[in-house]
C-alpha cells in the first residue's frame, strides 16, 4: 500500500515519517512554505532517538501524481475546518483501472472531533475514523516533532459507520510496525467522543494558557461537565477516563526534545502559527450543537468557542487572556444562562 498523507503537519508529518521509517511508501501533501521545505530538504522528524530526515515525494494536490493507484490509502490529517476543501480536491481524482478516489480508495480521518468522518462520507464510500492520541508539534516548515516513547502514539481505528474490516487490519499492522499502537475497534466513535471531552480544554488552553493549578483545572472540569451532560442527553456513549488510562498506561511518555519545545496542543499551535482559523467550532461547537438539539445549556462551551474564534481571526497570541478574566467571563455566562 502507498500512503498519501493529506496535511503533513504535526500529526500527518509524524505518521508519514514513521511509516517511511518502517519501509512503507509515503507521499506528503502540504502547502506554501511547508511544501517548499519538504521538497527541498525533506521531512525532518524530531523524535526521542534523534532527528530523522526523509526525502519523500511532496505535492500540493493530486494532479502531480497522475492516476492514483488502486492500493493507495488516503490519510486525512488537516484540521476539521479544512476538511471539505481537502476532500473536494481529492474525491474526484482518477484511479488506475477506472473510478475515482471517492468511489474506490480508503480514507482515514486522523483528526480531532467527530465531524470529519461525517463530512467525508458525503464524498467517499470507504471512510475510517481514527481516535488520535499522538503528542506532536509543527516546529517550522519542514520540521515536526513527536516526543512520545516507547510508542509514538495510539491510534484506535474502525469503519466510520461502525464495524471493522480487513483493510483496517492491514493498515493497523503497518502502523504497528511504525511505532504506533493501532487497535482496530468496531466502535471507534466511542473513543472519538471520549477524546472530544478531553479536547474541550483546547480552547481554554489556547486563550488563557496551560490547564495547570486548581483554578484552571476547576474551570475545565465545569466545561467538561457540560459536555458529559450533553452526551448523556443525546444517548451517546464514550470510553471512560479509567478505560483510556488503562489502554494508554505508560506507552506514550513525553521525552524533552532539544530544539523542539512543545508549547501546547493543536489549538494553541494554530494561534501560535497565526493560521487565522481554529478547530473550536468542531470541538466545543460540537457540544453546543448537541446541547441545542437536546435542550441542554452549554454556556461555557459557547464562551470558549466564541473566544477561540475571535483570537484566531484577530491573530492574538495564545494564552494572552488572563485566567482570572476568563473565569469571570465564565461565571457571567453561567449566570446569564441560569
Automatic annotation (TrEMBL):
Residues 4-148 form the Ketopantoate reductase N-terminal domain. Residues 191-308 form the Ketopantoate reductase C-terminal domain. It comes from the Bacteria. InterPro entries: 6-PGluconate_DH-like_C_sf, 6PGD_dom2, KPA_reductase, KPR-Related, KPR_N, NAD(P)-bd_dom_sf. GO terms for cellular component: cytoplasm. This is 2-dehydropantoate 2-reductase. It comes from Streptomyces griseofuscus.
